Amino acid sequence: MVTETKKPKTLSVAPMMDWTDRHCRYFHRLLTPSARLYTEMVTTGAVIHGDRERLLGFDPAEHPVALQLGGSDPEALAEAARIGESVGYDEINLNVGCPSDRVQTGRFGACLMREPSLVAECLAAMRDAVAVPVTVKHRLGVDDQDQDTDLERFVETVATSGVSTLIVHARQALLTGLSPKENRSVPPLNHQRVYRLAAEHPELNVVINGGIETVDQCEQHLAHVGGVMLGRAAYQNPFVLAACEEKLLGGQAPISRQSVLAMLQPYVEERLARGTPLKHMTRHILGLFQGQPGGRYWRRYLSENAHLANAGWWVVEGALDAVNRAAGKAA
Ligand SMILES: Cc1cc2nc3c(=O)[nH]c(=O)nc-3n(C[C@H](O)[C@H](O)[C@H](O)COP(=O)(O)O)c2cc1C
């Protein structure tokens, strides 16, 4: 009897400009050993001509880690994908979801949803260039192209490239009149459309993204799709990643916020010794005590002290003391 092997469900942390830099990803990795982490979007021009160590450098502990590219020229994307693979990324992702003006001027990001054939051409060129998986992240639709038939046409065309993992931000993008931030909250979420897409395309690995905040919500989504991707919730309340690791992936998560900090300390001290300012690292851990007694004091202490000229690990210890004092009073 042939038994069908089910692909394991996946958890990932979304690409977020200015947020998911290498320090943020290192921190997230401590919370979840198995989730896939994504870089901020890097344009093909920056990858090909920019300072590679600064733009693409990462710590080996971050694996599995995916490089997200922004671009719309198949040759440049192939070259950038090749570079990404050569520096060790485990996946190359194409951004077809970003709605900013800068991106539209460059004719990439969400506006590419209007050009499915070009997206397929880009993805095919990237796949030809690398052995690691190539994936795409897109929206449900763009402006007036927001019917199921538009999405279906996009997905069918894109799938001709051979790319089979589609990360779908479950809302439309409105390219005129809304800021990128508004485009992440004003167009309503429609998770059902992502479920439908997954049901209609069992041959594809559909990953759902948008508005997912808790382990229970992840569990509900995973009944319909192959993976969940968390963005703002992972950044603003990172300990949710530890709960997801344990409950969804069956992995070993850190037992406490304090133990995460103990694991982070050697990394921070090493980077400090190399000249990275403390605030570049601590800005990503402001949410660690989100919803906990003393969480406010944690944020305040870090914000008030991490920028000081002599800032070192003592700032994190001071913030932890502030949490403990507040928690002691609350008890
Ligand atoms: C600060 C910020 C920066 C973002 N930058 C990117 C980006 O570089 N590439 C991308 O595909 N999406 C980007 N996004 C969108 C997220 O990846 C994600 O699709 C969106 O926030 C919805 O998921 P969420 O509700 O879980 O946050 C960004 C979101 C935020 C909040």
Main attributes of the structure:
331 residues; Four Helix Bundle (Hemerythrin (Met), subunit A); TIM Barrel; alpha/beta; binds flavin mononucleotide; eight-stranded parallel beta barrel
Describe this structure in words.
This protein is α/β, with parallel strands linked by helices and 331 residues long. The protein folds into two domains: 10-249, Alpha-Beta Barrel (TIM Barrel); 257-330, Four Helix Bundle (Hemerythrin (Met), subunit A) (Up-down Bundle). The protein is built from 15 helices and eight strands. The chain has an eight-stranded parallel barrel with strand order 1-2-3-4-5-6-7-8, surrounded by six helices. Helix 4 runs parallel beside helix 6 (116-129), helix 6 runs parallel beside helix 7 and helix 14 runs antiparallel to helix 15 (313-330). Bound molecules: flavin mononucleotide. Flavin mononucleotide binds next to strand 2 and helix 10.
Provide the number of structural domains. 2
Q: Write down the Rg.
A: 20 Å
CATH topology of the largest domain: TIM Barrel
Percent of sequence in beta strands: 5-15%
Sheet of most strands: 8 strands, parallel, barrel
Which H/E pattern describes the elements?
EHEHHEHEHHEHEHEHEHHHHHH
Strand ordering within the main sheet: 1-2-3-4-5-6-7-8
The span between the termini is: 59 Å
Shape: globular
**What hetero molecules are in the model?**
flavin mononucleotide
Q: Please give the count of helices.
A: 15
